[in-house]
Amino acid sequence: MIEMQQTAGGLSRRGFLKGAATGLVAMTILPSGLVTGEAFAQMPKATKPETFASLVQMSRDCYPHDQIPDKHYATAVEIIDEAARGSPDQLDLLESGMAALNRAAAAAHGVPYAQVKAEADRVALLKAIEPEPFFQKVRGNLVVGLYNQKDLWPVFGYEGSSFDKGGYLERGFDDIDWLA
Question: Which residue positions does the secretion signal occupy (predicted)?
Answer without folding.
Answer: none
